[in-house]
Amino acid sequence: MVSVKDIAAACHVSVATVSKALNDYSDISEKTRTLVKAKAAEMGYLPNMAAVALKTSRTYNIGILFVDGANSGLKHEFFARVLQGIKSQAESQGYCITFITNRIGDKEVSYKEYCRNRQFDGVIIACIDFNDPQVLELVNTGIPLVTIDHVFNNTMAITSDNVKGIRDLMEYLYEMGHRKIAYIHGGDSSVTQARVTSFYQCAERFGLNIPSEYVMECEYHDIEESAHCTEKLLDLKDRPTCILYPDDYTAIGGINLIKNRGLSIPDDISVVGYDGISYAEIHEPSITTLKQEAEEMGSQAVAHLIDLIERPKTTLKEQIVVQGAVLIGNSVKKN
Amino acid sequence: MVSVKDIAAACHVSVATVSKALNDYSDISEKTRTLVKAKAAEMGYLPNMAAVALKTSRTYNIGILFVDGANSGLKHEFFARVLQGIKSQAESQGYCITFITNRIGDKEVSYKEYCRNRQFDGVIIACIDFNDPQVLELVNTGIPLVTIDHVFNNTMAITSDNVKGIRDLMEYLYEMGHRKIAYIHGGDSSVTQARVTSFYQCAERFGLNIPSEYVMECEYHDIEESAHCTEKLLDLKDRPTCILYPDDYTAIGGINLIKNRGLSIPDDISVVGYDGISYAEIHEPSITTLKQEAEEMGSQAVAHLIDLIERPKTTLKEQIVVQGAVLIGNSVKKN
DNA sequence: TCAAATTACGAAAACGATTAAGTAAAATAA
DNA sequence: TTATTTTACTTAATCGTTTTCGTAATTTGA
């Protein structure tokens, strides 16, 4: 392994000079700087990151908190795409990403301890129980941090525009002539809250009457529960003409139930998903949904996190909102 | 940040003693060992991994080469599940995982250089172009390494049993009375080769006549190409009664085309996928497929890699074969 | 022409751990 | 009793960098 020492010997200068030359210090002459850099390249020098980290406390390593719950995790395409965005943006900025876990060797540690131990320059939190006390503890350490789809007090966050997302869908549905719209929304979270609030606002704006039976809760990604909720809606005396689902996956659960009841989509009833996963497009009928820019969210998270790491003074901890767009499929009928 | 030095001061011993006590060296008395460990725990000591890495060249960090091609990558549920298996097994053994990329700072480097720079203890290669010269170079560095779904000369590999997978499917189809079976197989790779070979072997064993038009190639995950191939099969004078697809995703492409031609599944024609992604189960009709134990493959990869890292002498570089199983859906008719 | 400022480099300490080698004290052997 | 071994530590070097401080040599200013 070639080290600064070897380069120093080859150039007949000291290791200090080599280090400074490589890091573009101003007290090195142009001549030696180019000499050192040329030799370094020629000898295939790469800095030992452990030594750099030890000396500077910078690892160029970003920790990612991504918990694989039963219903979601990496298997969920939305999060897979967020991760992909994170990965490629980090790569393009010369950082690497590592999953945060709960173990160091054979010892259980908290997320905070884990991050301290691995000395991450920054942390991205996504797809997780934001009420977990360990997450709270991590957030309060002061480490540069970006959350995805959740806003803590005074931290930087990347969120999708859930208010606008639901509004766009509602406007589309209204234009398509729907007046009796049911909303099966996801489990309690800030995302759900924003969507539900937006739903009611739109309903009011359009002068729609939303009976309380039209709104119910279903865990995200839980296909059986969504079928069950759908069943209840179909059994209503005054059936909705369209059902909004928490996500595309649960929409499929609903669609299957509707079909099994001998009804057809969209002729008998319209359905709308959320997320814009690839199956929404290839499903027959294709599902009208709100396509979230998941990769964009991931890459924005990394870009802003690196700002926070490299320019902590001038970077303000803002809340970045990423827009999605209605992806029109064949699951909504023109009434 | 509390270091060995602080513990040494608190215990009135030298830093060497602290280090040895924490690492269970034999030349430390029981008394001081427990004292040191107690103090370390009390003070919340965690080793600085950079220092450990610098001194011992061990990082407890595994590099993962996972390239996100256009058609696959993390968005593919199979690989997402492999990754999940990797992640959880690594966590349970106290290692962390980091994606291998091509950049260090603002400099393009090869995979090999990247791994050297980050000093990964070992590497897992999955979901990638195994003919990439950079991958070859990495494989030949001698770093502990496990490949997934590909066997290099003399490296450890985790593969799914593609021969048995196809055989199990073929046996099932034969039992269901199918004799005219078409196989749209994936693009060139060792996985495809094993499957195609197994397909022909089974055909021979069952005395099936497979006209050459029944076998064609379609890129994995390419839904349009699979629809196109399906069309050709439907246009044949002597239509197959069942079509095998490269994966579940392409099977859906085929199914959609078949339905659009006014045919019904499985009554008019049967289809079979491969992988066992979640959509195969919730699709209507549910798709009969070979469910691969993707998570198992990931966790086996990590377990064996760690063996290789920690016991290089006694661990032999074998090829581990993980079995899948036929997941029976409603896409195959009893003939 | 001589002092002051600038330029370009080197010596050495430091980061936080590990570990080989050395050494007193205690235990055992002869 | 004395020599030898064992026990339980400590000293100090080391890993590969970065960075402070010092200092010759050169340039500039008056």
Commentary on this structure:
- Two copies of one chain form a homodimer.
- By secondary structure, chain A is an alpha/beta fold.
- In chain A, 44% of the residues lie in helices and 16% in strands.
- Chain A has 13 helices and 14 strands.
- Chain A has helices spanning 4-11, 15-22, 30-43, 49-56, 77-92, 111-118, 133-139, 162-175, 190-205, 223-234, 248-260, 278-282, 294-310; strands spanning 61-66, 96-99, 103-104, 107-108, 122-126, 145-148, 156-160, 181-185, 215-217, 242-244, 270-272, 289-291, 319-322, 325-327.
- The first copy, chain A, has a six-stranded parallel sheet with strand order 2-1-5-6-7-13, covered by helices on one side. A four-stranded parallel sheet of chain A has the order 9-8-10-11, sandwiched between helices.
- In chain A, a hairpin with a 2-residue loop joins strand 3 and strand 4 (107-108).
- The longest helix of chain A has 17 residues, at 294-310.
- The mean pLDDT of chain A is 93.
- Chains A and B meet through helix 4, helix 5, strand 2, strand 3 and helix 6 of A and helix 4, helix 5, strand 2, strand 3 and helix 6 of B.
